[in-house]
Design goal:
Two copies of one chain form a homodimer. Chain A has 351 residues and is of the alpha+beta class. The first copy, chain A, has two domains: 53-164, 60s Ribosomal Protein L30, Chain: A; 173-339, PurM-like C-terminal domain (Phosphoribosyl-aminoimidazole Synthetase, Chain A, domain 2, Alpha-Beta Complex). Chain A is built from ten helices and 14 strands. The first copy, chain A, has helices at 11-18, 29-39, 46-49, 84-98, 118-135, 190-200, 216-225, 239-251, 266-275, 297-306; strands spanning 55-58, 64-72, 78-79, 82-83, 102-113, 139-147, 155-164, 181-184, 231-233, 254-258, 289-292, 314-320, 327-330, 336-339. In chain A, α4 (84-98) runs parallel beside α7 and α7 (216-225) runs antiparallel to α10 (297-306). The two termini of chain A are 37 Å apart. At the A-B interface, α2, β2, β5, α5 and β6 of A face α2, β2, β5, α5 and β6 of B. Chains A, B: Residues 177-328 form the PurM-like C-terminal domain. Chains A, B: It comes from Vulgatibacter incomptus. Chains A, B: InterPro entries: HypE (IPR011854), PurM-like_C_dom (IPR010918), PurM-like_C_sf (IPR036676), PurM-like_N (IPR016188), PurM-like_N_sf (IPR036921).
Chain lengths: 351, 351
């Protein structure tokens, strides 16, 4: 309507005022806004408001269980290193494992689009089966729905999961405090870039596969080596940045990250430069970030590196009482910049 | 390709050989085939193979929990008597309640299509909130994903649920035996016809709304009045017919139904005649069917009729050892016909 750039409204915010836009699913600011403004207020309760990846429920008789849910809409459904079936199992197992829970049972609910080749369905089911078997967790209940061509996209999967939380274990962002040290279990952004490369048919330097993997064993090893762990999280949608910003802002703590310490594969770094992304914003599906007390860092790092899924584990930063609510990246040349969430989507449908 | 009808293949079976068709989601034979041939074999375990609407898990320390999941893809998302939000809460509460479990927690996972009006989302969330509040069950964990325009259909919801199973309670098709009597808690087909009428803009005789309602209270009242109840089920997709055929065929028992005893509203009967459907095949979302021992029928029926959601409860038939695997409808004029599942879809996307 107007030819003046100065007068032109920024299109995303306007659109996002009254309709769902892709950015609402990005794991960025719009996702937070949607959830905090439109969904959470309806369902206020302590378990939900903790906004951890799993709710912990006390069932009486001393039993505490963790309960989690995720819907998977990754596109394409097959990608190097996995597919939507294994991803759906790993993702939900990981949400349980990050609460320190031992996975006990999964549900598997399918929304299939008319026209999906049955061969694709079988491949996805076989992949989910193999992933669940490898973890040793049974799929105990399920559901299958079909929608018409053009009302879905091949296959969407919801997996929900139940786990048993060991007696006495207390994990979560509520336990993080100044002086805690931050570890990651390996390289950042492998999953997001592998999916994106498949979707866009990008040629990467070297082989890159998704890191999709079940983290229950790694998490248990970490908890044994360092019982004082404050919190674990698998940095999926929105990447490590989303986890750090969330902890800093919810707990009004400062977080300092040493940019040079972030482990990143060359193929991911190259693709990110090409695409204008930063690995810290890109999804992982087989990595954990752990907040540990200072006196537990050495034991924790050794335990992670001893495990096949943690060989590239690294210390990346610390929690401070300076600059509450802020994540600061210390750059290799001695500079400093604030790490923020992107407003809208960088990488839609990555999980 | 051929102009001869005799040579023309039946299109549904051919298409269904290598691709998903709408009938795979109908609750009819194709749905059973898909699940029994392509999904169950991958995940064999006793809890899943019971094929009840909920899995019962023993967590040790004497705690047994029920776990269930359902994805909702109903179209349209708003219909007389409810919407996809209340439906998703009621459906999952009912799956828990049919196992005799007391609902403890729900998860709520959204797949939103780009372009969905936020006002619609808010209306659905408010409806889910009100439904969960009325049951007294908290939504403790959730997830939100967004897919592009044309890759979804407004809003799909997965709700999973956890309930506590009272000590000593054993319910399920495994407990049904010859001589058991069959009750339904009210009129058949209200939900399916209400949704279909909204979708097709049918004018019905009189007002008809979905029966979508939470059955936990009704189920508890029934269990108190008649502790010998063998099995309860909410006959949703595929209607009462799907439940009866499944019990008869899985347990190799005969079931006889008195057609004249089936409670059906005039508006539903009229719409079914117009559409060539039978109410026994049409989905309900606020009704239960109960298998009870003969000496418990009077107490069970009285308890159902005493409850606001069971006022139209009726005896409809019995379990026999004749004709194992078969459901027989006795017609008002003394005839008899076999009740079977439709091959493919009658009513797509009804829940």
């Amino acid at each position: 309507m107007s030819s003046s750039l100065a007068e032109a409204p920024c299109p995303t915010p306007i659109a996002a005022r009254d309709r769902i836009v892709m950015g609402h699913g990005s794991g960025g600011r719009l996702t937070s806004q949607l959830i905090e403004e439109r969904i959470l207020p309806a369902f206020r309760n302590p378990a939900l408001e903790a906004l951890d990846d799993q709710a912990v429920l006390d069932l009486g008789r001393g039993s505490r269980i963790a309960f989690t849910t995720d819907s998977y809409v990754v596109s394409p459904i097959f990608f190097p290193g996995g597919d939507i079936g294994s991803l759906a199992v790993h993702g939900t197992v990981n949400d349980l494992a990050m609460g320190g829970a031992v996975p006990v049972a999964l549900s598997l609910s399918l929304i299939l689009e008319e026209g999906l080749p049955l061969a694709d369905l079988e491949r996805v089911i076989e992949s989910a089966r193999a992933a669940a078997n490898a973890v040793g967790v049974p799929v105990v209940t399920g559901d299958t729905k079909v929608v018409g061509h053009g009302s879905g996209d091949g296959i969407f999967i919801n997996t929900s999961g139940i786990g048993v939380v060991p007696d006495g274990l207390e994990l979560g962002s509520a336990h993080v405090r100044p002086g805690d040290q931050i570890l990651v279990s390996g390289t950042l952004g492998d999953h997001g870039i592998a999916v994106l490369a498949q979707r866009q048919r990008l040629e990467l330097e070297g082989e890159l596969t998704s890191d999709s993997a079940p983290l229950h064993g790694l998490a248990q090893a970490l908890l044994v080596a360092c019982p004082g762990v404050r919190m674990m999280r698998d940095p999926t949608r929105g990447g490590l940045a989303a986890t750090l910003v969330e902890v800093a802002s919810r707990r009004r703590l400062g977080i300092e990250v040493a940019e040079a310490a972030l482990p990143v594969k060359d193929a991911v770094r190259g693709a990110c430069e090409l695409l204008g992304l930063e690995p810290i914003h890109v999804a992982n599906e087989g990595k954990l970030v752990a907040f540990v007390p200072e006196d537990g860092v050495d034991a924790a790092l050794a335990a992670l590196r001893d495990h096949p899924l943690g060989r590239d584990a690294a210390w990346i930063g610390r929690v401070t009482s300076d600059r509450p609510g802020t994540v600061v990246l210390r750059t290799p040349v001695g500079g400093m910049r604030i790490l923020d969430l992107p407003y809208a989507e960088l990488l839609p449908r990555i999980c």
